[in-house]
Design a protein that fits this description.
Length: 134
């Protein structure tokens, strides 16, 4: 199984440097990589700290198989950004993070925290709106 096949089977379709570094290290250190092993490695490491994430069009982040915590980071996509959580997972956006499109901005400065879980979503749309789905 290739690295790309393994990532797609886990539902990861963005190559964020934070995720890529964890996955690359896992493959370098394991002679027989597996989906279960990679899930365990990622689940203990999916904290995005002080990253600069940019896309040419849209960004969708989904906390499906693990919790996602974004801290001190900047996320930018010109048209839309969606951040989702599923039933058993939590999404945390905090500690001087900003999510920005050409039309809207969500900012959580020092001491501020936005937490959502249980099939909820925050979406910054191309129609200049910020929507909360619960």
């Amino acid at each position: 199984m290739t690295l790309e096949q393994l990532l797609l089977s886990l539902g990861i379709n963005i190559w964020a440097s934070a995720i890529y570094d964890v996955v690359k290290k896992y493959f370098e250190e394991n002679s027989s990589p597996s989906i279960a092993g990679l899930k365990e490695e990622i689940s203990s490491s999916l904290e995005i700290d002080w990253a600069d994430i940019k896309a040419e069009n849209i960004i969708e982040l989904l906390a499906q198989n693990w919790n996602i915590q974004i801290s001190g980071s900047s996320i930018f996509a010109p048209n839309s950004i969606s951040m989702w959580s599923t039933t058993w997972n939590q999404f945390t956006f905090w500690n001087n993070s900003i999510s920005r499109t050409n039309h809207s901005s969500i900012e959580a400065w020092y001491g501020a925290t936005i937490i959502w879980s249980w099939n909820t979503r925050i979406e910054q749309s191309s129609d200049w709106s910020i929507k909360f789905y619960v």
